């Protein structure tokens, strides 16, 4: 089980990450977002930033569909995200190792190649999220 603090710890451990001022969390590398709080929009209600759900950059539609179909207990989307390489992740359902992988992969896809260091480089913190 993960939460916003875990996302923050993992994201800020990656090179050249900036946290944007937000009521939730919003992380960028090279001015490109890679993980942020889900801005839930419901008709007739103001937008609510949900820190229990992370929006992740996934690169392309194929990866998005693979995640949505392969792990529906973790990932979902809404019509507002149709055609965008983004998925929503239910933080309370993801374990530490998987969250680290997802945040790091999102960072790698958005970071300049000079930061990533090549296709095999996987910068990131150790999965030290031992809470249950």
Give the H and E element order: HEEEEHEEHH
Average per-residue pLDDT, rounded, comes to 89
Helix share of residues?
Answer: 25-40%
**Strands, total number:** 6
Pfam families: YjbR
Protein name: YjbR protein
Organism: Micromonospora krabiensis
What is the structure about, briefly put?
The protein has 4 helices and 6 strands. The chain has helices at residues 4-12, 61-70, 96-110, 113-116, and strands at 17-19, 26-29, 32-40, 48-57, 75-76, 86-90. The radius of gyration is 14 Å and the shape is globular.
Task: Explain how this protein is built.
There is one protein chain. By secondary structure, this protein is of the alpha+beta class. The chain has one domain (about 5-115): Aspartate Aminotransferase, domain 1, CATH 3.90.1150. The chain has 4 helices and 6 strands, in the order αββββαββαα. The chain has helices at about 5-10, 60-70, 95-110, 115, and strands at about 15-20, 25-30, 30-40, 50-55, 75, 85-90. It has a 6-stranded antiparallel sheet. α1 crosses α3. The radius of gyration is 14 Å and the shape is globular.
Characteristic terms for this protein:
132 residues; alpha+beta; Aspartate Aminotransferase, domain 1; 6-stranded antiparallel sheet; 4 helices; 6 strands; 29% helix; 25% strand
Write the layout of secondary structure elements.
Elements: H1 4-12, E1 17-19, E2 26-29, E3 32-40, E4 48-57, H2 61-70, E5 75-76, E6 86-90, H3 96-110, H4 113-116
Antiparallel strand pairs: 1-2, 2-3, 3-4, 4-6, 5-6
Helix pairs in contact: 1-3
